[in-house]
Amino acid sequence: MEISKQKRVMILIKRYGLTIVLILLILVGTFLPLPYYIYRPGTADPLNEVVAVSDRDQQSDTGDFHLVTVRGGQATPIQLLLSQFSDYQEVYDLEDVFPEGYDRDDYMREQLLVMENSQQAATLVAYELAGVDYTVNYEGVYVVNVLDGMPAADTLVMGDKILEVNGEKITDADHLISLVDGYDEGDTLTFTVKREAETFETAIKLVPFPDQPETIGIGIQLVTNREVSLSREVEFFSGDIGGPSAGLVLTLELYDQLTVGDLTHGKKIAGTGEVDYEGNVGRIGGVDKKVVAADEEGCEIFFAPNEGGRSDSNYQTAKQTKEAIGSDMVIVPVDNVSDALDYLNSF
């Protein structure tokens, strides 16, 4: 008996309808962007693939220093669901991470500029500790961020180079800050600025910061422009990794490549912390997620900022996370790069 066309269609719908619905649900759950942003453990990547010093000591390759990251991204339904089962994934409203009008490209450029400054600080600290020659010329400061609602927002943009203030040549960020501190609220200063090929002057008024009314300024975040000449060249291949938190492990990797012997003693070592030009190690965000990422990579040692022994330091958080996940990693507190070197040289 021949089945009518209408019945054949109904049979096909019954046979494949559920499959089609499931496929649609999977596609929606996987790709539909939600108004949430999730921070989660990222990767722990060997730094000998990111940093290369000329005439490097090849023995350094027997062990690895690892750059540890935190991964962030806009949530999908499946990701949001899975985040509820992890203690190390944080969910934020998207508008809190990227407020309306916030330029994500500018944010990424800012983070890359901060990473460049971190690389330079790590390089100079490592060369100094290793006794390798270098020279530094100070060439003013770069603007890496401009605060909305502050006077600088009307005339300065990210990437501008400040050469002089009221005719006085600026050497570094501390010099500019101390110079501004010598003036009063309401004073107007003349800034000599270089933007790409153009150099110009602009008058900017000093006002209180909205969240720090006792402090006056024009509303910019700065990094010092140092022209560095190295006796042994160094190259970085960090790609689109931004921010300052790799400073400590970058310094250790550079020192290892500059000196004879294997500083890692064949171990997989991770760590985090911003490094300044004196080698001091500062607090960073997301240390719990970085401990998880380092443990998943099989790292044996993790250096964390001690912050002078504060009870809520990165070190204390890292130690608590290690215990919570049942890791065998050794968590080592550091206030300065020399603390990490002392620990590694004690083996």
TrEMBL record:
Residues spanning the membrane: 16-39
PDZ domain location: 112-175
Lon proteolytic domain sequence ranges: 240-347
GO molecular function: ATP binding; ATP-dependent peptidase activity; serine-type endopeptidase activity
Keyword flag Iron: no
Catalytic activity: Hydrolysis of proteins in presence of ATP
Annotated keywords: Hydrolase, Membrane, Protease, Serine protease, Transmembrane, Transmembrane helix
Keyword Cell membrane: no
GO BP terms: protein catabolic process; proteolysis
Active site: 245, 290
Gene3D superfamilies (alphabetical): 2.30.42.10, 3.30.230.10
Enzyme Commission number(s) of this protein: 3.4.21.53
Pfam family, one: PDZ_2
Family per similarity comment: Belongs to the peptidase S16 family.
Name the record gives this protein: endopeptidase La
